[in-house]
Amino acid sequence: MKCDASFVFSDAMLGYHFNADHPFNQKRVVLAKELLAAANTLDESQIIAPKKATEDELALFHDRAYIQAIKKAGEGLLQDDGGLEYGIGTEDTPIFQNMHDASSYLVGGTLTAVDAVLSGKVSHALNLGGGLHHGFKRRAAGFCIYNDAAVAIKYIREKYNLKVLYVDTDAHHGDGVQWAFYEDPNVCTLSIHETGRYLFPGTGNINERGIKDGHGYAFNLPIDAFTEDDSFLQVYEAAFKEIAEYFQPDIIITQNGADAHCYDPLTHLCATMAIYEKIPALAHELSHTYCNGKWIALGGGGYDSWRVVPRAWAQIWNVMTTGKHKLGDIPEDWLSKWQMESPVSLPATWQDDKNIVPTIPRKKDITEKNYKVLQSALKYTKHRHT
Amino acid sequence: MLVEEIMNPDVITLTPDATIAEALTVLHENRIRHIPIVDDQLHVIGIVSDRDVRDASPSILQKDSAEKVLQNELKSIMSHPVVTVHPLDFVEEVASIFYDEEFACVPVVRDYKLVGMVTEKDMLYTLIHLTGTNVQSSHIEVKVPHKPGILPEVASVFGKRKTNITSVLVYPFKNDPNYKILVFRIQTMNPMPVINDLRECGYELMWPNNMTGPKS
């Protein structure tokens, strides 16, 4: 299905930069955008510039004292250890110049995406600079300063009063967004991620189901290290379909971290590009089934910036606008422009060769265990929507 | 950690002349599994568990005799004497009592008077906090020689990277007394620099971060 969609981008989003050695690099957004342009699937007319989120908008989720600390830090006015209380000044989220402004543009980008969709201008919108799902109310964590998804969901709740389904396919648990709406029955969160047994942030167990009125509206699929495509897709597709039917959302927001790939250096999942074709395809389908097409997609993690993230993120846009993912060769223009700069050999095709995945001796056990996780996570949905 | 920090000070009690029927109601309404039996001085003279009550209750098939049985006094079924602990005892001592005696609950007594209760569930909650799994963190296990000064040596690697440690545990290494496993939970999403530092210092890391580097 061909749909109208907006692509949020401007150079203002590139100011979110910790340092040259940091794994979180906004260059990924540029690489994805240029890949789309080279493939003739992104037209200038579809690009909209992010607004800068105001302090009042940030305060829909974040503490005012925290916002002030981030502002001060970005101006070099915070004392040496003054940031630790707020989770900044660490190796994960170091202080950088103008960090408040840079982070505000990422949140603003997601709000711009929300307004584009909810004003009826387009059905879908994509903000690859967003998806900073580890940000807490008054603490930065896991490369995330302001949590754009949490701010945007609060904004949707207050301004439009819609029921929001948030689906997080980053290999790390979407903890910041989950805890933000843990008591809210109008916001349902689903996160599929590598089990927190070893991996940051350690949370995201099946038994985290929400509390008080929000009980039954948080879903977690903690899958095993070394999970491969088939098992990932089996549990993701089953869970997303069943939860969408149970919750009946008005709008879907997806966080599209691309770090479950076998090349990713920070996680232990073993997927290929196959999952990054199916992930947006299902979100697209379900947004039309339940939400009259209202779907906002965000970026997120993904630390193989050259081989994995540009293709994975470009496929979201391909699916959004044409209903299909791209096949065949990567445009030559893009390869020749970036190969010189890339420390690794760039992939020549949109799809991966299955042989890039190492042999996983316990594949059968892992698949079986993940299926049990799925059954357990969905234990209560059937009873509730009758 | 001391017992007084984890005990529940709001204890529901009954007297020895209360009936089994009353105990059934108290257990059910408060969703608890143990009732300390006290005298008018708050001295603990017995304890009744949900199992004691169940064992003493008539079968649902014997309707006629039920009412009479349920009117028996608790002193006829309570366990005594009762093992108690003091608020200044260590939490781990309570864990040993639970394990050795196969209890799931102990009353806390100060100056001969009941001041609180500690249950198995309180102990598990404490264990969750001790392991640090309730806060955002990555998990790293390091195999080290069992020798003095090794813990600060390894911990300094995290310090140099400004990585906050949220919890530390020291385990025995299988059956080899010459080694220990140090388990750190650290507040970072990118443990790779620390892992590389630890490797460069010659430490052995445990699964799954023992992979030699990026998966490619």
UniProtKB/TrEMBL annotation, chain A:
CDD domains: HDAC_AcuC_like (cd09994). GO terms for molecular function: histone deacetylase activity. Residues 22-319 form the Histone deacetylase domain. The keyword Ribonucleoprotein does not apply. GO terms for biological process: acetoin catabolic process; epigenetic regulation of gene expression. It comes from the Bacteria. Pathway: Ketone degradation; acetoin degradation. InterPro entries: AcuC, HDACs, His_deacetylse_dom, His_deacetylse_dom_sf, Ureohydrolase_dom_sf. Belongs to the histone deacetylase family. This is Acetoin utilization protein AcuC. It comes from Virgibacillus phasianinus.
From TrEMBL, chain B:
Pfam families: CBS. It comes from the Bacteria. The keyword DNA-binding does not apply. Residues 7-65, 78-137 form the CBS domain. Keywords: CBS domain. SUPFAM superfamilies: ACT-like, CBS-domain pair. PANTHER family: CBS DOMAIN-CONTAINING PROTEIN, CBS DOMAIN-CONTAINING PROTEIN CBSX3, MITOCHONDRIAL. This is Acetoin utilization protein AcuB.
